[in-house]
Amino acid sequence: MLVSARPLRGPLLVITTACVIGIAGCAGGDPSPAAAPSAAAPSAAAASPAVSAPAVTVADPWVKTAESGMTAAFGTFSTTGSTPVTVLSAQTSASSRTELHEVVVGDDGAMTMRPKGDGFVIEPGAPHVLAPGGDHIMIMDLASPIRPGDQIDVTLSLSDGSTTRFSALAKETSGGEENYDDGAGSMHMSGGQGG
Amino acid sequence: MSALGPSLRRRALLLGGAAAVVGGGTAAALAVRDGDPEVRPVAVAPVGAETVPFHGVHQPGIDTLPAQAHAVFLGLDLNPGSGPAEVGRLMRLLSDDAARLMSGRAPLAAEDQELAVLPSRLTVTFGFGAGLFDAIGRAGDCPAVVRELPAFPADRLDPRWSGGDLLLQVCSDDPVPLAYAVRRLVRDARSMTSVRWVQRGFNPARGPEPAAVTPRNLFGQRDGTANPASGSPELAESVWVRDGPSWFVGGSVLVLRRIRMDLDTWDDFGRVGKEMALARRLDTGAPVTGGGEFDEVDPRVVDERGMPMVAASAHVVRAKARTPAERMLRRGYSYDDGPTPDGAPDAGQLFAAYQADAATAFVPVQGRLAESDVMNLWVTHVGSAAFVIPPGCADGEFVGRALLGT
């Protein structure tokens, strides 16, 4: 089965009352090792480290429940700045192995997930939607089951050297019919109701 | 005279009026049909986009008045073996769903924006039954009256409509977003719970009468005349828990009774008798002893023969709060699950009463009614459940978190 290729509807879901989770402390009062070697925005960080807003905010974050193996986290990323920011990598409290993935249409028409090594570029004014059937944060080698209502902490490392942390709520869904754990690592998608 | 026909002209008035009050939400446009002296003003308001905040000191769906037109009450049972961790996950999920749905958004992981975008004052209210307290190891914290209401002489309770570990009261002025909300909430709850019962109720639609008018029940009575006003000190004192453990302050207690009405015999009883049974007029809700709807029945009034006009067993005489502690907020809904195959009605009221302490409010009042109330000729209590209503929660929190201690 193929996932029908169509534009993501996700951006339409982002409405003004959406709960935006941005942990200011991550970019300010909670200096992380990732922030130290940054050369991208040294002056701003040095001038007011305690009050600088996170470069990326995350709305509506959630993670798909899973008993073991792999799963994925989703949400809508926006940048509050005036220049693009790239999400370089993610870490989660659910496992020690996380990758940024995209979904692409192969030569055979099948949609395939693959790591996106250069990260997700977040353009100002253009929220970047991670959703089943599209870009997502792949969580591998789960340390323990992710059950409905669990919260998974996710930390994004950004191209400006800062980090953004958020909590993703675990929800059961068959949305997208992706099988994030086919055991062989080839990660082909199946089903046709992807979002 | 307009060139448009009467119906078109009316529609133009309605649409124009609705457009004019978008954002206000409380104003009403008046439409009068040409040449129809019987038609009363029709109130029209853009109710679809109205929202009630989920987060706050108190849970929504209680002092959300007038009560929405439609309600679904769900009694869920926790899966065997559930503990504080499971209940915490459940309430975190359901609180997140409720906050989103009430603000007009689909739940996380759902895309049905068009079903969610017009919530029409959707509210989701959670209640904890004794079984939930037991499951989380806090059996001693469940008020005795919630654990077990006294048995009343006239009760004919069916387990099918009774009990439950977790209550979901979901209300909206529109049954479509209501159905969607119930479905998504249950979908998220069902891996941890089973559905014990579901009871659907309704009140008069919004629009036919002004919002402030007391709704009618299926007997035709104005029902709720004695209720405290929204936001009033009387409501606060009657409904919200003020003294108690911190996890309970700001909460309430819900008693939900399924009350079957024998509408066939009521139909045939005669109008004078019906009004004497309640001691209030059917048309206006005013006391049979005179005055307006919000005047009290005066049991001392006698007729020209010197006979009391109000029977000592008239419903409002028996039901009236005799002390401040007996006051409660009645937020009931009619139900109609009939007719049965032989054509009999299967209808009545989902009596939902909120109070700070059911032991001092519902129990003594219902004790009086069960002992003597003319209306007992036509009403039978067939279902019963009581729940602790935890206080509301702040953004980022979930209902019941303080009790769970997580």
From TrEMBL, chain A:
Coiled coil: none annotated. InterPro entries: LpqE-like, Lxx211020-like, PCuAC_sf. It comes from the Bacteria. Residues 171-195 are annotated as: Disordered. This is Copper chaperone PCu(A)C. It comes from Pseudonocardia xinjiangensis.
TrEMBL record, chain B:
Keywords: Heme, Iron, Metal-binding, Oxidoreductase, Peroxidase, Signal. The keyword Ligase does not apply. Belongs to the DyP-type peroxidase family. Signal peptide: none annotated. Its cofactor is heme b. NCBIfam families: Dyp_perox_fam. This is Dyp-type peroxidase. InterPro entries: Dimeric_a/b-barrel, Dyp_perox_C, Dyp_perox_N, Dyp_peroxidase, TAT_signal. One of its GO terms (molecular function) is peroxidase activity. PANTHER family: DEFERROCHELATASE, DEFERROCHELATASE/PEROXIDASE. It comes from Pseudonocardia xinjiangensis. The keyword Signal applies. Residues 214-393 form the Dyp-type peroxidase C-terminal domain. Residues 205-231 are annotated as: Disordered. Residues 59-203 form the Dyp-type peroxidase N-terminal domain.
